[in-house]
Design a protein that fits this description.
about 65% helix; rod-shaped; transmembrane; mainly alpha; membrane; DUF2786; DUF2786 domain-containing protein
Amino acid sequence: MMTDRDKAIAKVQKLMSLAENAGNENEAANAFAKARLFMKKHSLSLSDIYTPESAQPPSVPSEKTPVKQPPKPMTAEERHREMGRRKQQEEQRLRELQALVAQQRQRELQRQREQQALRELEKRQEIKKQQQQQTPQERENQPEPVRTESQILPQQPPIPPEAPHFSRDKAPSESNVRQFIIGKIKNVLVMRNIPLVLIAAVMIFFVIYIVYLQ
């Protein structure tokens, strides 16, 4: 009676044979992946799956066919070499299958990237086409911006305060100069909220100073 391990070995051998004889890359990759799962699940190695063939019993000679000599049994060294050779062959097959799977994945990724780039290009072209079609209509239907009264009327620059006008032909009198200076000082002091007593004191001091200079 076959144990679970023997059944797993037979299943893996069947999957490996199916992967080798597959008609396309997808079938080979699927069979190879299933074989790897069985080997990992049952802790199988390549030596468990690929064992040297046992000696076949001698065939019964017939009258029409020549008698075949039974194969010579292999020694331990020969069996070891045969096992190593088969193991190398299987590793080579596994590498080839892995390379096929990697190539298939690379092609699939490249195909997906190309399709994505094509979709983005078509989307950009569609957006550009819609913008070209909608731009004239939007320009016609776009309402004019409402301008306020301040925007309609031309803004006049602020008129600077006029300086005291003195005639070129006639020099300004000293009294006018004093009044002008006193008025300026008074305005400055009033704007800064200085008490009237202090303003009067400063004006008196300034008048005395001007009289003393004369």
